[in-house]
Design a protein that fits this description.
- Keywords: Lyase, Pyridoxal phosphate.
- GO terms for molecular function: lyase activity.
- This is Selenocysteine lyase/Cysteine desulfurase.
- The protein has about 425 residues and is of the alpha/beta class.
- The protein has 2 domains: about 1-40 and about 295-420, Aspartate Aminotransferase, domain 1, CATH 3.90.1150.10; about 45-280, Type I PLP-dependent aspartate aminotransferase-like (Major domain) (Aspartate Aminotransferase, domain 2, 3-Layer(aba) Sandwich), CATH 3.40.640.
- Helices cover about 40% and strands about 15% of the residues.
- It has a 7-stranded mixed beta sheet, with helices on both faces. The protein has a 4-stranded antiparallel beta sheet with strand order 13-14-17-16, with helices on one face.
- Helix 7 links the parallel strand 7 (about 165-170) and strand 8.
- Helix 3 (about 60-80) packs across helix 10 and helix 11 (about 295-320) runs parallel beside helix 14 (about 400-420).
- The model has no long low-confidence stretch (mean pLDDT about 95).
């Protein structure tokens, strides 16, 4: 585990900007990682450098050739991170836009008729894309219900809804509200068993910073990432499409390369900053593996990250020292249960007797940054079935510490007392 290796946590935190201090508000603990992770300092440096280069791609000069090499390296690093030996990696406007494009291409490339299927656990990025392109292609959009108690959806739940004529299916790897992951390989296997030709698209946006991604093992046709949630920056999304999906007709320049997913000139800095993330994860993985194989190091980093975050989640939910955990605090309602296994860095909750907005402010007054989630077009799929109007989301990453969790639990204990006293 990261915290058990002497000096490693300090080394990790030193590689990120604004770890302990907000540039606008001052000292704070950052527990809003699901809304966007801390940025690597190397990402900030690369962004500035590439933003300043005036040369365009595809020209016969050293500067242009250097840009093309950066793009090629970035795509290779994307494939390495995803463990994608085939298919195409590409950059889009955002993770949401990438999901829309993957789903659209699958919907129009699949055989006519049939149905499109997803789950009620999904973020609206994929759910909205499925609804839009199911309607445009005249197909029903089936939504597999998730389990409110566990905050996830199972392969068997999909099995009950998938038919032989299922043309496109979406799976969310991890819910950004409940924090619970989905066994995407098992879900994909069920879909393939019943509908072998179905296109399968995975939303990995919440998962990517918390564990390894292996599209080869999943057996999917598309995967989407939002780099700003995995230590990079805003302004681009990353997608992967299988050879089968890439062969489908899609928006392209007439007479352009048939396999091209990208239109126009992309920001070379996007590719460079993704390589920065992969380089960082390789560095971290080398602390836990003697292997010189890059993929092995990435997997070692993912295992270390998962173990550290599981420790933080256990402390947050079950308590640490003499501080009770959220699961034992009177009046605290956990969204999607209190399970540790399968949870990836997120706890969403409500506190009886205190409005969620007031709880966010209370934590802010105690130097802790969290976020309110409302029963709206982003989170209504989770909150509405529970009859809730809002909740607060607390989200951690591997650079957070047990001491930060202690300070959060102490502030929550004060909030519980305040709520029990009627806000006095």
């Amino acid at each position: 585990m990261i915290a058990e290796t002497p000096g490693l946590m300090d080394a990790v935190r030193s590689r990120f900007a604004h770890v302990e201090t907000c540039p606008f508000e001052g000292p704070r603990i950052f527990f809003e990682n699901a809304g966007g992770a801390l940025r690597l300092k190397s990402v900030i440096e690369s962004s500035a450098a590439y933003a300043g280069y005036p040369d365009n791609q595809g020209r016969d000069n050293p500067a242009s050739q250097a840009l093309m090499e950066t793009i090629a390296r970035g795509k290779a690093d994307m494939a390495l991170f995803l463990n994608a030996p085939g298919g195409q990696c590409f950059v889009g406007e955002s993770g949401t836009e990438v999901l829309f494009r993957l789903v659209r291409t699958a919907a129009f490339g699949a055989s006519a008729g049939g149905q499109m299927i997803g789950s009620t656990l999904e973020h609206p990025a994929s759910a909205s894309a499925m609804a839009r392109w199911a309607e445009a292609t005249g197909r029903p959009h089936i939504r597999v219900p998730h389990d409110n108690a566990t905050g996830t959806v199972t392969a068997e739940a999909y099995r009950a809804a998938v038919t032989r004529d299922t043309r496109v299916a979406t799976i969310v790897h991890t819910s950004p509200v409940t924090g619970m992951s989905v066994d995407v390989a098992a879900v994909a296997a069920v879909i393939r068993e019943i509908a072998p030709e179905c296109f399968i698209i995975v939303d990995g946006i919440q998962h990517a910073s918390h564990g390894a991604v292996d599209v080869a093992a999943i057996g999917a046709d598309g995967y989407a990432l939002s780099p700003y949630k995995m230590f990079s920056r805003h302004g681009y999304g990353v997608g992967w499409a299988s050879d089968r999906l890439t062969a489908c007709p899609k928006e392209q320049i007439v007479n352009g390369p048939a396999a091209n997913w990208e239109m126009g000139t992309r920001d070379t800095g996007a590719y460079a900053t993704f390589s920065d993330v992969v380089e960082y994860l390789e560095w971290l993985g080398a602390r836990f593996s003697d292997s010189t194989d890059r993929r092995t190091r990435l997997e070692a980093a993912a295992q270390a990250i998962r173990a550290h975050e599981e420790h933080l989640m256990r402390a947050m939910l079950q308590g640490v020292g003499n501080l009770p955990g959220l699961a034992d605090m009177p009046g605290v309602q956990l969204i999607g249960g209190a399970a540790i296994e399968g949870r990836e860095g997120v706890v969403s909750l409500r506190l009886d007797g205190m409005a969620s907005a007031e709880l966010v402010q209370h934590l802010r007054d105690n130097g802790i940054r969290v976020h309110i989630r409302k029963n709206d077009h982003y989170c209504g799929n989770i909150l509405d079935p529970l009859g809730l109007e809002d909740c607060i989301r607390v989200s951690v990453c591997h650079y957070n510490t047990e001491d930060e969790v202690r300070r959060f639990l102490s502030a929550m204990t004060q909030a519980v007392t305040k709520a029990q006293q009627g806000g006095d």
